[in-house]
Design brief:
The structure is a single chain. By secondary structure, the chain is of the alpha+beta class. It folds into 6 domains: 7-99, 2-Layer Sandwich (Phosphorylase Kinase, domain 1); 104-282, Transferase(Phosphotransferase) domain 1 (Transferase(Phosphotransferase), domain 1, Orthogonal Bundle); 308-398, no CATH class; 408-470, Trypsin Inhibitor V, Chain A (2-Layer Sandwich); 475-539, Trypsin Inhibitor V, Chain A; 542-607, Trypsin Inhibitor V, Chain A (2-Layer Sandwich). It has 19 helices and 24 strands. The strands form 8 sheets. Strands 1-2-3-4-6-5 form a 6-stranded antiparallel sheet, covered by helices on one side. β5 (75-84) and β6 (90-99) form a beta hairpin. α3 (117-136) runs antiparallel to α7, α10 runs antiparallel to α11 (271-282) and α14 (351-357) crosses α16.
């Protein structure tokens, strides 16, 4: 970088500082080669201390640059500017060149005011649209937070810094700098806090945290240190948003709590699924039962209490494992457990409870002795210990013996019935019910579409029947198109899974020519996907009234009204030797259709 004209990489001229964060400073700038305005993010020099950082950083930036979508801030270029200071020391300046977006960072908006529920839904829907596109391209963001979301001047969502968090997390220097955890603690997923591999569901958890904050005004977990906040993400359940903000609907509660599930398999499995559930919640449709059949908990489970003085050595080991389950963060996965339980005739899904309860300390010196633990047999010991803990925890009530004692049951035909009717019919058969919402353009809201297993199939008692219930047509949030060009509005309509309808023109005193004045339906409403959107575009003109012979007060009122919006000046004819009257004798702009935003001069009568 040269200090005289502040040129990066021989082509990017730095302008004014427009933003600053913990990792970088952002400047407006100009690409002198292409002549376009850009944003230039200069990362802290210590990020480049690892010699391989620049390679990883450029690879991630290139992956991000391939994602061209209206909800994602475009990346144009990235690199590592190398210079030598006056002392002969080589300096590295990592940079990234991006699309310059005019608007506000969501972080700043949240600091200034509370969002409405509709704004929270619309902004989250936009973020999920960006994630749906990036995940399809194989890019996981890893750092969804308010500081990485822009709200443009036309209220559109723009998500920033795709792929940058990955390049940073792969840098050993950065890991030391951040104590081994990349991201912002308040928006961590449990797997990030534990240092595990992340995937697209990590982004969805962070989006759930952000939705919670937009609805309530605060994140679900806070603390004095990043470590304490990260621990809460792993071990504590958030208070439902409606208990913080009573205006939040129970339908939205269910969406947020599913998104914040500790187990990533219990969360939404895609951004599209999350967005569909959010649109359904905006229409008042609640997710009453999650995929794993568990309702969102509001408090952590109490640890199991065992009197160790009454136990033999084997049971003391069991007690120690149970105690560690309440104290430790690291989870142990037992791949053999499902096979062992299925051979005993238990529902293999129940073993998820065991694997979530069995935990161990990271310090191997504090673990039970290998001879004691594995003396029972490596697979058998895990199975027996898990089974006993599970039974003590009340797991016996969840056993499924494949219909033993009750014979086989033919699943009732509930297709076409309401969910309430279907629930009654199936539970009367001693079957369990798992409700799943499914979008449908043809089947009425709340009506059963199908079941799995299907009607007539023979099953055992206590078998779970998945009931697919119509959530109606897919709901989307109507984007705010005000002030957009016709081309941009058409693109926004298409991206929102809507259809452009009629375009009509209307006069406007304030909206520039060929820009959108309004839409029908209006912005931020929840509407069915595929709905037709009609636009009103500005002609850039107004109708100027004839004010000759009117009093100047009345004339001025008409010309400055919202429908005309002119600036009014008055004068007296230069030949007048008397005083100015109040009656208008002429106007500088003729009555009729005229360009907007003009200054009109009214000539007043001359009194003797």
């Amino acid at each position: 970088m040269t200090e005289g004209n502040r040129i990066i990489a021989g082509r990017y001229e730095l302008g004014e500082l427009i933003g600053r964060g913990g990792m970088a400073e952002v400047y407006s700038g100009t690409d002198t080669r292409l002549g376009r305005t850009v944003a230039i993010k200069l990362l802290k020099a210590d990020l480049a201390a690892d010699s391989s950082f620049e390679v990883r950083f450029r690879q991630e930036a290139q992956a991000s640059a391939r994602m061209a979508h209206p909800t994602i801030v475009r990346v144009y270029d990235a690199g590592d500017e190398v210079s030598v200071d006056v002392n002969g020391v080589e300096r590295h300046l990592p940079y990234i060149v991006m699309e310059l977006v005019r608007g506000e960072v969501l972080r700043d908006i949240l600091r200034q005011r509370k969002l409405t529920q509709q704004e929270a839904i619309a902004y989250t829907s936009g973020i999920l649209t960006a994630l749906e596109f990036s995940h399809a391209a194989g890019v996981v963001h890893r750092d969804i937070k308010p500081a990485n979301v822009m709200i443009t001047e036309t209220s559109q969502i723009k998500v920033m810094d795709f792929g940058i968090a990955r390049a940073v997390s792969d840098s050993s220097a950065t890991l030391a700098h951040t104590n081994g955890i990349v991201g912002t603690a308040q928006y961590f997923s449990p797997e990030q806090a534990r240092g595990e591999t992340v995937d697209l569901r990590t982004d969805l958890y962070s989006t759930g945290v952000l939705l919670y904050e937009m609805l309530t005004g605060r994140p679900p977990f806070t603390g004095d240190t990043a470590v304490s906040v990260a621990y809460q993400h792993v071990s504590e359940n958030p208070v439902p948003p409606s208990m913080v903000n009573s205006s939040v609907s129970l339908a939205l509660d269910s969406v947020v709590m599913k998104a914040l599930s500790k187990d990533r398999f219990a969360r939404f499995q895609s951004a599209g699924e999350f967005r569909a559930a959010l649109a359904a919640a905006a229409a008042g449709v609640s997710i009453e039962q999650f995929n794993d059949g568990a309702q969102p908990a509001t408090a952590p489970m109490d640890p199991i209490k065992i009197d160790e003085t009454e136990l033999d050595p084997f049971d003391q080991l069991l007690a120690e494992v149970n105690e560690e389950a309440t104290d430790s963060v690291a989870e142990v996965e037992y791949e053999d457990a499902d096979d062992g339980f299925s051979q005993l005739g238990f529902d293999t899904g129940s073993t998820q409870i065991v694997t979530r309860v069995l935990k161990t300390k990271k310090n191997s010196a504090e673990r039970p002795s290998a001879g004691l633990f594995w003396g029972v047999g490596s697979g058998g010991a895990v199975l027996v210990i898990g089974l006993i803990i599970w039974l003590i925890s009340g797991g016996a009530s969840l056993l499924n013996f494949g219909g033993g004692g009750g014979g086989k049951i033919a699943v009732a035909n509930v297709v076409g019935k309401t969910y309430e009717q279907a629930y009654t019919d199936l539970t009367n058969q001693q079957l369990l019910v798992d409700r799943q919402l499914q979008q449908s353009d043809t089947i009425p809201l709340g009506t059963v579409i199908s079941t799995d297993p299907p009607a007539g199939q023979q099953v055992g008692i206590k078998t779970t029947i998945t009931v697919y219930v119509s959530a109606g047509a897919e709901q989307v949030v109507m984007p705010d198109l005000s002030g957009m060009s016709e081309q941009d509005a058409t693109l926004a309509i298409t991206n929102a899974k809507l259809v452009l309808g009629t375009i009509t023109q209307a006069d406007s005193a304030t909206v520039a020519q060929n820009m959108v004045i309004s839409s029908d339906p209006a912005a931020n409403q929840s509407i069915p996907a595929g709905s037709t959107i009609n636009l009103v575009i500005s002609t850039g003109t107004v109708i100027v009234p004839n004010v000759v012979n009117l009093d100047k007060t009345d004339a001025t009122a008409q010309l400055t009204s919202g429908s005309v919006g002119y600036t009014v000046n008055t004068q007296v004819d230069s030949t007048c030797t008397g005083t100015a009257g109040t009656t208008v004798i002429s106007q500088s702009i003729a009555p009729g259709i005229q360009p907007q935003g003009q200054t009109i001069i009214l000539t007043l009568e001359c009194l003797p």
